[in-house]
């Protein structure tokens, strides 16, 4: 059943050194926080943010492994089973008569086991340090310190059955000692019955299974008790799965109780073998039902001393006192479990060897091999908690932070492109628009004026001369001058910008509408989460968006959605307003002056003669009027309005369609504006991210323009502190993973 030789020595785990790594938030930290401010977090600190329960499991698993070496010669066998399976009767067969009297046996719910009861050799209590270590491990496993099992049988029975009806007592183990266990030198953990429903009100089946899985880590072997009719019961399969998943490598045995005579031992083996092989059960024991007379030939006989121990002293359920000898003789005998052999001739009614009785199991245990298996199981359990649960949760959280940040970048870029992109009718981006800042407009005006031909410049000079001579002439005279014509043209151009015919007029309200349209209120959820956390408990909302405040007659809680309770517009408008104003103030982008002058000079030279005559004295004045109109947008409409328009759009808005087409058709001229437009779009996106608490794109994003993917440059606007909530971004550090692999290397294979 157990290995004859020790397996390859497992690597020793230095728990104090490993714990120091998990707590390190400096050089060996697990997490690098990239945003909102660079920093580092330890493994345990990061895990507390996400799954605080896994932190407790990690520390508990580490302490278990660290203390296991000191308990090498004190193995414990877990005995688990379903209601009325005979589990406590099996445990009783190892105890003295006095110990048997303190156990609770029977077939009704009043005799059910609803607490963990740990029976230990009496001699173990004499070692104060060892006993303290055992008690500490029990508390670590179940979450609460144990309490002593009462010496009085009646009180002990009430504790066993949890007759106080306190569900929380399920996780408080009962601790008892018995001198009969000194001889075999093992402890026995009598586990609560796995009930099929919650009728008893003493813990759900799932809660009991969870606690059983935690308690199993105390044990060096696992014995599952079932009755012969439960081979297909799902609860039995769950018990085996708990044993195999949570304590891989630990010996597992199955004890089949209440076998009927019509089922021979080899049939029992055949029935339960598939399930046993699936879950790595090493040995199957069987005990025939002694209530059936025909079972007698299949119940092996042992020595007289052992037979006497199998007739326990009974306890009167009313008085709680030991029964008289006469009553004791009528007490049910304890089941006799024997190892089932695949050879029918070696099973009862044939005589069997003493070593095949379950009672001989503790004496056959190789403590060295058993400890090696327990140590491996505890190490694998620690690996699972730290690598598979803890680190995997941290990785997923870090990946989710990147993914959510990328979603925010995409939403903000798409919303920005509604203003910074000049599109075709089908939606394809033809070119990017420039933020027509004072610097850009001044450059354009000066370059157009400096490179303009004589006839265009003469028109501007004439304008100045007439205004000087006419002076305070009436409206009619002023309307005939080029200056008045330019002013009228500027008013017309502003109207075209405002109507959206040309360019994109960026206002906070319009930008917020575009962000919402692209799903920004979903991905920018850190604002909503921050406000929800700041609410008092009486003002909090649940996942459905309904208030958690208790309703009252004078203040009923109306039906509402989260969107009604938390006004996204009110949350997002202030940072968006700050972003627009800050971009207007901090946008220092300029056009390449040499390339700009060259492009405009070429454009002037290519204007056809009939176009020159048609425009007469006003082409430069009209162009400057368009630039002036763009410059007046923030003054006329409000400082929170800015204009984004490409140079061809400015010219087209002034009615200079031919010039606009010429500019758009000139590769050099077009690139002058596009280079600056890409920088401005990158800067605008960066400022939006800053104010909305989102990390800036790194590396910069790409935009598809005229069928080509164009990479945006790095923003030139300095990063600023966010006034509101932030969306953190994390990365798992490779240095931590490398160090963790040294201190807690992954197993090459996981034994089941």
Automatic annotation (TrEMBL):
Compositional bias ranges of the Basic and acidic residues kind: 302-311
Domain of life: Bacteria
Transmembrane segments: 613-635, 641-664
Region (Disordered): 297-328, 529-559
SUPFAM superfamilies, sorted: P-loop containing nucleoside triphosphate hydrolases
Protein known as: G domain-containing protein
Transmembrane among keywords: yes
Keywords: Membrane, Transmembrane, Transmembrane helix
């Amino acid at each position: 059943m157990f290995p004859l030789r020790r397996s390859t020595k497992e690597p020793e785990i230095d728990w104090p050194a490993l714990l120091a790594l998990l707590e390190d938030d400096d050089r060996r930290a697990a997490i690098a926080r990239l945003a909102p401010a660079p920093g580092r977090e330890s493994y345990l600190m990061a895990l507390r943010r996400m799954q605080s329960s896994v932190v407790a499991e990690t520390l508990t698993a580490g302490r278990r492994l660290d203390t296991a070496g000191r308990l090498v010669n004190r193995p414990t066998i877990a005995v688990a089973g379903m209601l009325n399976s005979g589990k406590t009767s099996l445990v009783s067969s190892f105890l003295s008569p006095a110990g048997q009297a303190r156990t609770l046996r029977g077939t009704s719910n009043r005799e059910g086991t609803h607490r963990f009861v740990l029976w230990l050799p009496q001699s173990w209590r004499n070692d104060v340090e060892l006993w303290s270590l055992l008690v500490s491990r029990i508390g670590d496993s179940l979450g609460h310190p144990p309490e002593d099992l009462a010496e009085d049988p009646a009180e002990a029975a009430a504790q066993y059955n949890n007759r106080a009806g306190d569900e929380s007592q399920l996780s408080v183990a009962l601790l008892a000692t018995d001198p009969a266990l000194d001889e075999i030198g093992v402890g026995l953990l009598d586990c609560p019955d796995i009930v099929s429903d919650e009728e008893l009100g003493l813990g759900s089946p799932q809660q009991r299974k969870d606690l059983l899985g935690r308690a199993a880590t105390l044990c060096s072997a696992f014995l599952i008790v079932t009755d012969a009719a439960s081979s297909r019961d799902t609860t039995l399969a769950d018990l085996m799965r708990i044993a195999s998943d949570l304590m891989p490598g630990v010996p597992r045995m199955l004890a089949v109780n209440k076998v009927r005579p019509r089922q021979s031992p080899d049939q029992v083996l055949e029935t339960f073998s598939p399930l046993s092989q699936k879950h790595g059960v090493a040995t199957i024991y069987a005990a025939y039902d002694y209530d059936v007379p025909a079972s007698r030939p299949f119940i092996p006989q042992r020595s007289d001393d052992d037979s006497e121990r199998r007739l326990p002293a009974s306890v009167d359920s009313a008085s709680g006192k030991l029964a008289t000898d006469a009553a004791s003789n009528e007490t049910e005998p304890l089941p006799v479990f024997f190892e089932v052999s695949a050879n029918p001739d070696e099973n009862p009614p044939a005589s069997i060897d003493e070593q095949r009785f379950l009672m001989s199991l503790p004496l056959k245990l190789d403590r060295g091999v058993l400890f090696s298996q327990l140590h491996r199981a505890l190490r694998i359990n620690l690996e699972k908690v730290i690598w598979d649960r803890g680190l995997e949760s941290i990785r997923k959280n870090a990946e989710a932070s990147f993914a959510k940040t990328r979603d925010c970048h995409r939403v903000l870029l798409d919303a920005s492109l509604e203003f910074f992109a000049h599109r075709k009718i089908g939606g394809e981006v033809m070119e990017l628009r420039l933020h027509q800042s004072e610097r850009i407009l001044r450059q354009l005006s000066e370059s157009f004026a400096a490179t303009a031909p004589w006839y265009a410049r003469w028109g501007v000079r004439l304008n100045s001369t007439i205004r000087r001579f006419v002076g305070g002439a009436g409206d009619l005279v002023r309307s005939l001058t080029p200056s008045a014509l330019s002013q009228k043209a500027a008013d017309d151009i502003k109207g075209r910008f405002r109507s959206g015919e040309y360019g994109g007029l960026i206002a906070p309200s319009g930008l917020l509408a575009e962000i919402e349209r692209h799903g920004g209120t979903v991905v920018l959820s850190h604002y909503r989460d921050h406000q929800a956390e700041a609410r008092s408990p009486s003002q909090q909302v649940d996942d459905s968006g309904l208030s958690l405040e208790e309703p009252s007659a004078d203040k009923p809680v109306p039906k509402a959605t989260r969107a009604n309770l938390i006004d996204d517009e009110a949350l997002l408008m202030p940072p968006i307003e700050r972003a627009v104003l800050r971009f207007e103030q901090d946008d220092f982008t300029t056009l390449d002056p040499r390339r700009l002058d060259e492009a405009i000079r070429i454009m002037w030279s290519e204007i056809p003669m009939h176009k020159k005559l048609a425009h007469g004295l006003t082409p430069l004045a009209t162009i400057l009027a368009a630039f002036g109109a763009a410059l007046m947008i923030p003054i006329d409409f409000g400082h929170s309005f800015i204009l984004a328009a490409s140079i061809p759009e400015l010219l087209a808005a002034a009615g200079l369609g031919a010039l606009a087409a010429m500019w758009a058709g000139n590769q050099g001229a077009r690139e002058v504006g596009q280079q600056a437009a890409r920088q401005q779009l990158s800067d605008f996106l960066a400022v939006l991210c800053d104010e909305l608490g989102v990390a800036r794109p790194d590396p910069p994003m790409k935009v598809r323009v005229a069928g080509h993917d164009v990479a945006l440059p790095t923003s030139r606007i300095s990063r600023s502190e966010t006034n509101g909530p932030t969306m953190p971004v994390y990365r798992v550090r490779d240095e931590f993973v490398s160090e963790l692999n040294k201190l807690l290397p992954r197993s090459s294979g996981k034994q089941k």
